[in-house]
Design brief:
Elements (H helix, E strand, L loop, with lengths): L1 E4 L5 H10 L4 E4 L5 H6 L2 E4 L6 H4 L7 E4 L9 H7 L2 E4 L5 H16 L2 H9 L16 E5 L3 H12 L3 E6 L10 E4 L3 H4 L5 E4 L13 H6 L5 E4 L8 H9 L5 E4 L19 E3 L10 H17 L16
Parallel strand pairs: 1-2, 1-3, 3-4, 4-5, 6-7, 6-9, 7-8, 9-10, 10-11, 11-12
Length: 314
C-alpha cells in the first residue's frame, strides 16, 4: 500500500509512523505531484492543494485523510463522484482555539489592549474600563468539539453557556440549548456571542442585520468559524453603529485582508489572521487521529474516525 503525504511531518513524528507501519510505503512531499498521485492508494493532505483537475490523477485513491477540519476548498463533487472516502481531524483544534478565544475574552474584560497602548505611550493611568467575566452569559453557535471545549472553560469562570445549533439538541457544557430558529430570541441574553460554525448552505449569512440589532450594545462578538457567517458590510455597519461592543475576528469573507481594509482600523476590533488553531502540536495531534484509522484501513475496515459527509459540507 502506498500512502502519499502532500506535506512532510517533522522527523520525530515521521520516523515513528514509518516504523509502526512497515507494510506501508510512505511518500512525503511538500506539495502535490500528479505523478505521485497516480500511484497513491491513500492521500494525506491539508486539502487546499487538491482541485478538480488533479483529482482525476488519483485513480487508485480510495481514502483521503484531511489534516484540517474544513473542506470548502476541496473538489468535493469530483471526490463524491469517485466514491472516495474522506475523513478529517475534527476536534483537533479544540484546545488551541478554545484557549485563543478565552485569551481574547479575558484580555477585553481586563482591558489588556488598553494597558498595552498606555505602555507604548509611557503613560501611567488607572482609567482602564475593566469588567468581570464571572456571571456573564455566552451564546455559542456550533457547540461541537470546539464549542463545547469553549463552554467547559467558560463555565469554570462562572459563565452561563447557551448553545445554538440546527436542532437545538443537547450539547456538552451547555446550560441551555436553542435552535437556529430561536437564535434571535436568545441573542439579547448574551454578553458574549461566539461562532465556530462550519460553512454550509444553512450557515452562510446566517447572521443578518436584525441579529446584530438585538445584541447587547456592549456584547463581544467573536467569529472563529467561517467568514461566510455574516456579510462583511453587515458586520462593519454593526460595529460602526455601536450595535456591539467588540468584535474579535479570526475568519473573514475574503482572506487575507487587503492592506487598506477598514477592519484593520475600526475601533473595538481585533483582527486575528486565521491563526487561532495554530499550535506546535498540530501535526502530532493529526497523526494521533490518523494512526487508528490506518490500522482499521489495513484490516479492511471502513468505519474510520471522523468520517465526512461531503454533500453536507462536514
Amino acid at each position: 500500500m502506498r500512502i502519499y503525504f502532500t506535506f512532510e511531518p517533522r522527523p520525530d513524528l515521521r520516523e515513528p509512523l514509518v516504523a509502526e507501519f512497515p507494510q506501508v510505503d510512505f511518500i512525503f512531499e511538500n506539495g502535490l505531484s500528479n505523478d505521485e498521485l497516480q500511484q497513491a492508494d491513500v492521500l494525506v493532505t491539508y486539502g487546499e492543494d487538491l482541485n478538480d483537475e488533479n483529482i482525476q490523477y488519483a485513480t487508485k485513491v480510495k481514502w483521503i485523510f484531511v489534516a484540517s477540519a474544513g473542506i470548502e476548498k476541496m473538489p468535493t463533487q469530483a471526490i463524491i463522484e469517485r466514491g472516495i472516502l474522506v475523513s478529517n481531524v475534527r476536534g483537533i483544534h479544540k484546545t488551541p482555539m478554545a484557549e485563543s478565544m478565552l485569551a481574547h475574552i479575558l484580555a477585553i474584560k481586563r482591558a489588556l489592549p488598553w494597558m498595552y497602548e498606555q505602555q507604548k505611550k509611557n503613560e501611567w493611568s488607572k482609567k482602564a474600563k475593566q469588567t468581570e467575566l464571572r456571571d456573564s452569559t455566552a451564546l455559542i453557535l456550533g457547540p461541537g468539539a470546539i464549542g463545547s471545549e469553549v463552554g467547559r472553560l467558560l463555565q469554570a469562570f462562572g459563565v452561563v453557556t447557551i448553545g445554538c445549533n440546527r436542532s437545538g439538541d443537547e450539547a456538552a457544557y451547555m446550560n441551555d440549548m436553542v435552535s437556529f430558529d430561536q437564535l434571535i430570541e436568545a441573542l439579547p441574553k448574551a454578553d458574549i456571542v461566539i461562532s465556530v460554525l462550519p460553512k454550509t448552505e444553512e450557515t452562510t449569512h446566517l447572521l443578518k442585520e436584525e441579529h446584530f440589532k438585538t445584541m447587547k450594545n456592549d456584547a463581544i462578538f467573536m467569529n472563529f468559524g467561517r467568514g461566510s457567517l455574516v456579510e462583511e458590510n453587515v458586520l462593519i455597519h454593526a460595529i460602526q453603529a455601536d450595535e456591539i461592543g467588540y468584535a474579535v475576528l479570526d475568519v473573514f469573507e475574503q482572506e487575507p485582508l487587503t492592506e487598506n481594509h477598514p477592519l484593520w482600523t475600526l475601533p473595538n476590533v481585533i483582527v486575528s489572521p486565521h491563526i487561532s488553531s495554530h499550535s506546535s502540536r498540530y501535526v502530532e495531534r493529526s497523526l494521533e487521529i490518523f494512526k487508528p484509522s490506518l490500522e482499521k484501513w489495513l484490516r479492511g475496515e471502513t468505519d474510520l474516525e471522523n468520517m465526512m459527509d461531503l454533500s453536507r459540507g462536514y
